[in-house]
Specification:
By secondary structure, the protein is of the alpha+beta class. It folds into 2 domains: about 1-45 and about 265-395, no CATH class; about 55-255, no CATH class. The chain is built from 13 helices and 11 strands. The strands form 3 sheets. Strands 5-4-8-9-7 form a 5-stranded mixed sheet. Strands 2-10-1-11 form a 4-stranded antiparallel sheet. Strands 3-6 form a two-stranded antiparallel sheet. This is FtsX-like permease family protein.
Amino acid sequence: MLIKLQKKTLVKTQLFGYVLTLLIGVFIIVSTIQLFIDAKPILNEKTDVFNTKTAVISKQVSVFKSIDKQKIYFTPKELEELQAQPFIKNISVFNNANFKIKAFSNHSESIPLFQTDLFFESIPDAYLDVKVEDWQWEKSQNFVPIVIPESYLTLYNFGFAESQGLPVLSKNTISQVEFNLKVFGNNNTEIYSSKIVGFSNKINSILVPEAFLSYANTKFGRTETSRISRVLVELDNLSDDNILRYFNDNNYDISKDKLEFSKLSFIFKSALIFISGIALVIIALSIAFILLSFNLVIQKNKEVIVNLYSIGYSYQNIARFYQVIISIITILAVVLGIVFSYYLRSVYVKKFKTVFDFSESKNQIFVIGFILAIILVSIYNIYIVKNIKKTVTKTN
């Protein structure tokens, strides 16, 4: 009898409208969060070991600068002007090695013998996104970690290795290879062991810890001071059009493709945040819609509810029907949103794999949907009981 009476109080179109809006909101918010989780490794790999809002600048080399090499170096005044620009958050200079370096391998079955000249540079460790334990160096240490440009590995695999009949190497493989460094100059010589601990897409340079380069320049260097030919700039707003305009006006070279990717990365993340905001608004509207509909049902059928309470039904019993119905349709909407999100993910993951070297991240769609369903059902159950209790006790 109780259920039959309460069934008549429901408006099916209102329930359908709630399910539809909640489904859309859940689908968008869950898909957006999962897309960010899946795309994050791609963004991190493309922006490599450097922070995403950094770029490397140098002076353009002209015929006159080829004659007078001093003109390729930054003066203290030029560095001050750079730091003063509103779109530049901070600047850091590259330190150059003022000594000679040779890299060579020991005899091994897995690694061919090689010997080559190298150059080193360093930047403050705070700008590198490598594991701290991999990038530490102390004077007592005989191991020197290195970061190389990813393009070097590409040139080796598809150029040198191909022409010499050598095996190609993946990032993981080459990161396991240890070799030796012969550092000499200023009548001093030392041998260090070394290994590649990271790769860079943003800068064509071989980087070592700043602590090592400072020590080595002091011990092996030909000059006491290191001249500054390249500067790392930390940008405040990647979408600022004044960035490229300023660098072009001052004849500074900048890696525009990497800057554009960083800008695209910034836009992509901003778009995801905006879409998530829209999804949250839709979910909030669906919640407001069902709560308003429930209030209208209570007001319209206030007499029936009060009579049920008067003949012995507790407010918990009266509320239970509405709790069950709203919980069921809420879970239904969330489940449908999860199903559609799973389908969308299968589509874009397939596309990612054809374009990028992509490995799937952990699927969090079910977890996000489950948490959302628990929160919504809890809110509704508490609200319904309080509203029914308020209605019957206020009348009495």
